[in-house]
Amino acid sequence: MRRVPQQARSRAMVERIIEAARTVLVRDGYESFTTNRVADEAAVSPGSLYQYFPDKSALVTEVMDRWSAEISDRVAASLAATGPVDVKDPGTVRAIADALLTAIESDAGLLRIVWEELPAVRHRAAQHSLENRVRELLAVYLSASGVTARDPSARAWVIVMAVENVAVRWVLDQPGISREALLDELSAMAGGFGAS
Amino acid sequence: MRRVPQQARSRAMVERIIEAARTVLVRDGYESFTTNRVADEAAVSPGSLYQYFPDKSALVTEVMDRWSAEISDRVAASLAATGPVDVKDPGTVRAIADALLTAIESDAGLLRIVWEELPAVRHRAAQHSLENRVRELLAVYLSASGVTARDPSARAWVIVMAVENVAVRWVLDQPGISREALLDELSAMAGGFGAS
Amino acid sequence: MRRVPQQARSRAMVERIIEAARTVLVRDGYESFTTNRVADEAAVSPGSLYQYFPDKSALVTEVMDRWSAEISDRVAASLAATGPVDVKDPGTVRAIADALLTAIESDAGLLRIVWEELPAVRHRAAQHSLENRVRELLAVYLSASGVTARDPSARAWVIVMAVENVAVRWVLDQPGISREALLDELSAMAGGFGAS
Amino acid sequence: MRRVPQQARSRAMVERIIEAARTVLVRDGYESFTTNRVADEAAVSPGSLYQYFPDKSALVTEVMDRWSAEISDRVAASLAATGPVDVKDPGTVRAIADALLTAIESDAGLLRIVWEELPAVRHRAAQHSLENRVRELLAVYLSASGVTARDPSARAWVIVMAVENVAVRWVLDQPGISREALLDELSAMAGGFGAS
DNA sequence: CATGAATGAGTTTTCATTCAT
DNA sequence: TATGAATGAAAACTCATTCAT
Predict the structure, then answer these.
(1) Which of A176, B52, C74, C88 is the most buried (most CB within 10 A)?
(2) A157 to B175: CB separation less than 8 angstroms, yes or no
(3) Residue D38 near chain C (CB below 8 Å)
(4) Does C contact B via 3+ CB–CB distances below 8 Å?
(5) What transmembrane ranges does the database entry give (chains A, B, C, D) (predicted)?
(6) What was the pLDDT predicted at A124?
């Protein structure tokens, strides 16, 4: 029998549980997300689950926190890969939207759960992390670019909401629009304000 | 004891149940939405409830169907009140967005439940009716106006999604932006495409 | 199939549950007193139990309330059977103690549970009903008789406690003392104060 | 690292555990008395606890045995301090009751748990040690004094029970009677028998 | 010996649904 | 048809106890 350091053992167990939670969430949906089912899926006893998470919602929160961290990482990675963001360039919005799409496309299953099944009230923080990420990114561009509006913060808010929600819906609803066409429209939408 | 025609009695009962369901949904949230509670609220026995609805989710579906019909009606009513929609007028988007806001503002409580608490999977049809309504309206404008795009249907889809989601989030999140400013931004967003 | 009026049906069920609770309490003790076990014993589903009692402790409370009412009734009945209580008569204490013994002897099983197993904190009211009963009865005698003390209320309290506890311990511990001898001692104890 | 003889280490561990058990019992009550909590409080692993105690109830028993030994010691100490017990002196009962009060007052917290929360069945021996102690003491006095009764052992039993229970209730219920008044009544009660 | 992670049967309670009346 | 008492499977969570290290 292999020697496994304690630390490693518990880490492995936590990982197994979180992984199982994610699986159950995506496979069965939030209404069927039971602590017992997660324990089953993780091949772990219900008691063990409660040694690492104070209650069911802590489990969900953890899954969501990880998911939002992943999104952030992926957005950052995509942007880095695209090269430096020139804040004056109207292509910026496109790059950001592109990065965002890349990030959320990678786990559409969980995206659907987060967006459509989780009771928002209970998980607002993690749920809005996407928003925050997009807001941060666009804020830089918007303030730097020549875009003007009577109420700049209103404009920023509207653009963030629009880009975020349209991107999510495109991934979830598969409306038969090409990725390129979508990006075209999104940058037109944000950039077009210039003419207003 | 007055004789009440069966048909009428049943109709009244169904109405009472649906009304109670809506009340419970808005007052207590979806997590506390139990068939027993609805029966209580309707002053009806649980057994009766099951005489008209095969299961709990049918009840929710019915509430949502009615709600989306109301939204449609209100949008139509608002537009009618504003006067005829001139399809060439860039003010059209503003009018539509205005009508949409008016419609959803009138029952923000239920809007929140529908948007943030209901498991979307089970009620996709009703939930998407808003989109369909807006899509129909904008489709007319977009096709008639000079707005051109490489992919007109993509453009329409994006605008619909953007307007709808931004409007809903504005109502639910109360982001401290005036109604007028919001409408300004929304029409700029849609209209701005012209320059693209 | 016999027609049973609703009212009668639920009454019967409540009775079955309370009876089962009492049985389980006496047979298995408080630590094994489970809602599921009570439901089993009553041949009723756990759900039914909760239709009549808000929680486990309400069940216990009900059993205890009934038990203390029974005790009261039996004490009253015994005293009535003995004939009128002459408040000046030193035999009064004996009569009261006798009545008390008769009352608690009739359900020594439950007496043991109440006295030795129930967490006092949670059921103080019902648990002290014996005390109250004894206090009331003796209060009349003590105030009317020539018994004097520097602090009459202290004397009353001491006698009540002594009679009550000694009687209970005699029933529960079966110390090999005859009923008559016990009554002799108790009245000597209370009456003897006269000489102090 | 200092070498600690095994024996000594185990003794220290046992002590720590028992001490922790007592603390938890008094601080949190019997319903919250869990082996894990005791282990925590003792800064010891649950596994270690089970190396010295076969199960939870053995732990409780040990705490109670120690407690009753302490009571005995304190009673003895109080009596010793008061001076020699003159077996003919009617003040003897007073001295004994006084000693008893002193003993149980010193740890009213644990007294309450023992008297009101612990399932008596499981710990009868320890719980009755108080009685035994008092019985022994009073037995000497009663047999030596001129007190006569038809059944002397019955009389002894009654007095022991009365003194013990009244003393305990006085400590736990705080009935607003002075210590002196209580002692007066107790000795009157026991001594008054003389007149019977 | 000591550890403490892991266990899993068991606890209280809920609620969608049924069915005899 | 309407009732509502009854159901019972299942949920979240606990805790005395074990055993590999």
Answers:
(1) C74
(2) yes
(3) no
(4) no
(5) none
(6) 73
